[in-house]
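Q: Structure tokens for this one, please.
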Amino acid sequence: MDYRKALEADDPARALQAMTAAFNFERDILEKCRDRRLSRVVTVLDSGQVRPANGQPSDLVCRL
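A: Here is the predicted structure, written as tokens:
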């Protein structure tokens, strides 16, 4: 997710909320598919976040 675009939006709080909701929805769906052992769906191996060393708060990378 590119937080910089959200932080530059007219309403950063709403932009961040929309991005976060979409990310959480996708992660939850993928985890449910994995837990139910659905074979025809891409499987999420892991999720989390990474902050580069000496990075700014907007450099946070969320991953699936």
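A few notes: The mean pLDDT is 83. The chain has one domain: 3-63.
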